[in-house]
């Protein structure tokens, strides 16, 4: 699937006497802002703006290149426990891993996404990007709230849930999501849960 500034290419290579015509499915608007400028001007990305500044990712998101930012909205940050959020925001390494887990290494418009697509993030992890009917999905969940916000250096999709990579989780959080959750309870009952957090 080929896109031009997120417009889908419907028919290609209509040769004319003075050139070639490609038919697309929407009017292409002028794009002037970088991904960083979109973050700075969008009210619903206020928490992300602070997180990007704290992790020193500003220069990457305004540099030349082609990225896809899966931008967590303020709502996405509010959904996770305050204690977890404060821990990540206070840990520069975990915060950088978290944000890099939301940046894909190439520009990916919604029209070009097909079911079962695996994309690599800047963190080196992978995300399953797909679609369910009209909705786009990440790791099987329809959490993309707004899609195809174009920037000069890529594209932004707003997501309403935070995607926390394993590298930004404590041992306790990892254990709770795995087959050793009963062992975690035993650590807690023995008063040793602080070692896992």
Automatic annotation (TrEMBL):
A GO CC annotation given for this chain: extracellular space
Origin: domain of life: Eukaryota
A single GO BP: extracellular matrix organization
Domain FAS1 span(s) in chain numbering: 1-28, 32-163
An MF annotation (GO) of this entry: cell adhesion molecule binding
InterPro entries: Adhesion/Biosynth-related (IPR050904), FAS1_dom_sf (IPR036378), FAS1_domain (IPR000782)
Protein's name in the database: BGH3 protein
């Amino acid at each position: 699937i080929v896109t031009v500034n997120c417009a889908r290419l419907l028919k290609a290579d209509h040769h004319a006497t003075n050139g070639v015509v490609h038919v697309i499915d929407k009017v292409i608007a002028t794009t002037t802002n970088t991904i960083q400028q979109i973050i700075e001007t969008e009210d619903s990305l206020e928490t992300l703006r602070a997180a990007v500044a704290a992790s020193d990712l500003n220069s990457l998101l305004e540099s030349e290149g082609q990225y896809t930012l899966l931008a967590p909205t303020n709502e996405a940050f509010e959904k996770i426990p305050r204690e977890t959020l404060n821990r990540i925001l206070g840990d520069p390494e975990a915060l950088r891993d978290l944000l890099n887990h939301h940046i894909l290494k190439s520009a990916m418009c919604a029209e070009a996404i097909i079911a079962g697509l695996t994309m690599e993030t800047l963190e080196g992890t992978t995300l399953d990007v797909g679609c369910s009917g009209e909705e786009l999905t990440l790791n099987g969940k329809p959490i993309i709230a707004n899609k195809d916000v174009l920037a000069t250096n890529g594209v932004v999709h707003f997501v309403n849930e935070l995607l926390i990579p394993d590298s930004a989780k404590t041992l306790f959080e990892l254990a709770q999501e795995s087959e050793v959750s009963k062992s975690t309870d035993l650590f807690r009952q023995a008063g040793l849960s602080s070692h896992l957090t």
